[in-house]
Amino acid sequence: MYINLDSVPWHAACGGLMIGAAVALLLLFNGRIAGISGIVGGLYRMQKGDIGWRVTFILGLILSVVIWRFFFVLPEIVIETNYTMLALAGFLVGYGTRLGSGCTSGHGVCGISRQSPRSIAATTVFMLAGFITVYLIRHVFTF
Q1: How far apart, in whole angstroms, are the C-alpha atoms of residue 94 and residue 102?
Q2: Domain ranges across the chain
Q3: What are the tens digits of pLDDT across the range 24-65?
Q4: Using CA atoms, how far apart are residues 62 and 137, in angstroms rounded to an integer?
Q5: From residue 73, how far is each of 2, 108, 124 by CA, in Å?
Q6: Nearest to residue 22, comparing CAs of 12, 11, 33?
Q7: What is the pTM of this model?
Q8: Shortest CA distance to 102 belongs to which of 43, 33, 24, 27?
Q9: 27, 29, 64, 79: which has the highest count of C-beta atoms within 10 A?
Q10: CA 109 to centroid of chain Cα atoms
C-alpha cells in the first residue's frame, strides 16, 4: 500500500522533524555535527573508532530511501540538463563545500541551530549564490 504525500501539507514538516531528530541524536550521543561533507570526508582520514558511526550514518541515508519506497511513493526525478552541466554543478558544489568549510547540512541545519556566526554567514552565501545562479541560468543565459 502506497501513500501519496504530495497532497498532504505536513510532509515537509515531518521531514524536517526527522532531520532535526537525527542531528540532535548524533550530537547528543556522539558529540558530532551532522555535516554530510565532514562525515564522508572523515572516511578518507581513517582513524580507529571513528569509522563505524560514519558508515552507519551514510548507510542510514541510503537505506532510508529504500525503506521509504515500501510505504510511500517517491517523487519523480526530472533532470532538464546534460551530463556536462551536471558534472560542472557537482564540481562547483564540491568546491563550494570545501571553500565554505562545510556543507548546507553542517552549516545550515546544525550551525544555525547553534547560532554560529560563521554558519549563518556561510548559509547566507550558499543561499544567495543559489538564487543568483538559478536566476542567471533560467533568465539570462540559455544553455
Answers
A1: 10
A2: 5-140
A3: 888 888 888 888 888 888 888 877 778 888 888 899 889 988
A4: 30
A5: 6, 27, 33
A6: 33
A7: 0.69
A8: 33
A9: 27
A10: 9
